[in-house]
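Intended use. Records like the one below are meant for learning the mapping from a protein sequence to its folded structure. Do not use them to infer anything beyond what is encoded.
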Amino acid sequence: MKKIIITVICFAFLTACKENNHSQSEYSKNAATLKKLLDSADLSNNYNGSILIADGHEVLIEEAYGFNGNNQEPNKPNSKYGMASMPKMFTAVSIMQLKEKDQISLEQTIGDILTDYPNEEAKKVTVEQLLSHTSGIGDYFGPEYDRYKDSVRSLEDYLPFFASDPLEFEPGERMRYSNGGFVVLGLMIEKISNTDYNTYVSKNILQPTGMLSTGPFSSSAGGGNSTVNDIYKFALALKNNSLISQESLAAMTTDHFGNGYGYGMSLRELNGNNIYGHNGGAPGVAGELDMVKEKSLIIITLSNRSPMDGWAQVRTHIRKEFFGITPQIKKFLNTEKFIKTYKTQGFEKASELLVKLDNNISLGNTLNFAEKYARYGQHKEAIDIAKIVTNAYPDESLPYSFLADFQLQAGQREKAIVNYKKSLEINPQNKHATEKLKELE
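Structure written out for the chain above:
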């Protein structure tokens, strides 16, 4: 009998080991392939940032590429980077922590918690609607904020930039990404905890997880700095339910309103993989945390360049390697191939390739490459790419508008006027083209 029991135990143990080794070897193979790709000239020469990819507690890749924002020092795995909107995850976790203590409910309204909130109409907005960007509250970014942002010292200082504006739609009716809404959530955290936002997050999220290189944050909507290793600690803490319960995490990662967003978490499905996390982008800032439901894969990318300056390219290749091809990834890769062909073989070959690709490229990414040429005074190249795109998409307004911009920069005034007019024929609402024509005519 003992022999049978021992045999069964050993068999179960070996089976478990085989399963674990299969899982690990599968991720390790993906990581090894990706590492070779990341070290290739095409990617590493364009990426300035750090990457951490892990299978649970096993770090598969932790590397840094390029230089800091001033191009003075090489980036390191522990380099600090801006976070832009990524701290919205911390704000949502803070709300869920307070909910677990019965200090707040998702059904409560702004008026219930912030009784002196300076907009009576907005007082009916619920905590849940704020967390899911379905509140109707707008944003604080704009000319006024740009003019007075240096005077902002607290969360309350953001209110004059958006709080008195009418709701953009009836709460819960649809989604509109709202930094203002997350500022309001931060004010709720401060009111309930009787401490400022940064102190609360530090005490209840950063310190317990050992995130010693993160913060302070500009607001509860984002800002501040972190490292890939600190974000990794946060991801493990979420998966281990040491910050919030499994039930709270499930609520945060559920698409309650069908808008691709949970509570402070972006949600997407890539070939059967349900991914949650958050990205952040701004001039000189790009980053993202990707976690996979019911799997141990964690992917973190942080860069000190804008999203289209290498980061989006690297993020796309990472997702392709771990999740496979999707229509969006295919478009991005086709764009890469198109631009590479133009660089190495010229205008005609790039035009031919685009026909073979059935024009299946990303307009935004392609025009971004053209803008890079223009930025460095390579007007011919910028015009070439924009021309190819207008030939491929003759019914799209945007390529004509970009082509006109590049022609104007190159001193081709009359040609620019023609293409601004073409852009307006397709889209009479193109304000940029309208303003340019007024200046030129």
